[in-house]
Amino acid sequence: MSDNIFPRMHVSLYVSSIPETVKFYNLFFGVEPTKVKTDYAKYIISNPSLIISFVENKERVQQNFGHLGFQVETVEELNKRLWEARMNKLVSKEEIGTNCCYAKQDKFWVNDPDGFQWEVYYFHEDAEFNDPHFETAEAKACCTPKENVITVNQ
Predict the structure, then answer these.
(1) Which of 2, 28, 42, 143 is least surrounded, with the fewest CB atoms within 10 Å of its CB?
(2) pTM here?
(3) DSSP label at 153?
């Protein structure tokens, strides 16, 4: 697969520590960054097609914007990524057969060193039900239903 798939999504996040961030994302993405400076790191990833950069600035770290994530094409790919994340002790939560964002999904979540949440999910089908729990202040992820949730201790 070519690294030149366009359009590509670009995200830039403020982080507390470039070394800790690079350590986490090397495991989560399974690749090394394309550029690293003392206060900056950038990954250009082909799968998922994404450019993501990190700027070290503790005062500007904000986790309350929602979450980041990507959809995978098959259940097999989800299971592969989930297995890799488990082996690296990155998984914070697994949700199987959950209704979130008006869609039935299987997914897992990871949290980076600054608490940014990443969702990796497989879309099964549209749903008429959306779990409203994610709108509350105590929600730990987009949707956090009481059933079908496995919290993983690290």
Answers:
(1) 2
(2) 0.74
(3) P
Dump pLDDT digits (tens) for 95-122.
998 888 788 899 999 999 999 999 999 9
Q: How many angstroms separate the Cα of 48 from the Cα of each of 38, 96, 130?
A: 26, 21, 26
Residue 40 CA neighbour count, 13 Å, CB half: 6
Q: Looking at this protein, which amino acid is placed at residue 64?
A: N
Q: For residue 1, is it within any domain? A: no
Do residues 72 and 132 make contact, with C-beta atoms less than 8 angstroms apart?
no
Among 148, 88, 98, smallest CA distance to 119 is for 98
Beta bridge partners of 106: 122
Report d(CA 67, CA 98) in Å as an integer.
17
Question: Is the same domain home to 27 and 93?
Answer: no
76 and 145 in a single domain? The answer is yes
106 with 124: CB under 8 angstroms?
A: yes
Number of domains in the chain: 2
Q: Which domain holds residue 41?
A: 9-60
DSSP H/E element including 28: helix 18-29
Give every CB contact of residue 60 below 8 A, 6+ residues apart in sequence: 14
- The neighbouring-strand residues paired with 121 are 71, 107
